[in-house]
Structure formats: C-alpha cells, structure tokens
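FORM 7B: Structural annotation worksheet

SECTION A. Query
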Amino acid sequence: MWHGNTIKEVLKDISWQKAFAKPANFSHNIYEYVKHICCWRKFVLEYLKGNDTYSVEINSETNWITKYETSEASWLEALSELETNQTELVNAFGNFTDARLEEKVPGKKFNWYVMIHGLIHHDIYHSAQIAILKK
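SECTION B. Predicted structure
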C-alpha cells in the first residue's frame, strides 16, 4: 500500500488482551475501531446490494460499539467479520465498471466514486489509529 501497511498487516499479531486495552488518551480500543470499520464496510455493501434504505445512526451502538464481551472469542469474531466483508467487497466490485463510478448512489446525494473513496480513506484513517495503539 502506498500509505503504509494494509489493515490486515496492522492487525497481525495483536493479542485479544491488547485489542481490548484502552489507553487514557484514546476514546476507543483496537476492537472498537475494527467493529467501527466493519460497520461502515457493511453500509457500503448494503448499498452495493441495492439496499438503499440501510442506514447507520452516527454515535449509535451500531456505529461505535460499547457493549461487548472482552474475550478472545469476541476478538477472533471481529477479525473474521473484517475478513468476510473484505471478501464481499472484492466480490461486489468484481463486476463494477468505471462508468458506474459517476452514477449517483441510490438515495444519496453523491456518486459511487465518492462512496468508495470515502470507505478507503475511512479504513486508512482508523488503521493508522490502530497502528498507534498497537505500539
């Protein structure tokens, strides 16, 4: 990646204990960032599937999870969810043409180009926060 490590590389070798640790100067822990990334990937996937009524309320439990079990199983489930939605995104974009990039996202005021770039920038931004917490 031109910006640094992929999110998969950033998440490599993070123990479940470290994933749930929250330093005083951070609002979220690694687990919460991963779940947040998954939330917005699901948002894009739903629109790619034609579900133009799907929504995520800002500052909701869906957007920023606060109620969860701090366990190895929860951490592994979050990593699996991230891997699954990565595969789903790659598959969904497999037949996505360049011409569609300029099409308006159904029910939105912006086009697919903006949505896709927004998702990429979102992943990069939060993967950098995770990289800092990992240290």
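SECTION C. Observations
Residues 7-134 form a domain with the Four Helix Bundle (Hemerythrin (Met), subunit A) fold (CATH 1.20.120.450). The chain has one domain: 7-134.

SECTION D. Sign-off
Analyst initials: ____
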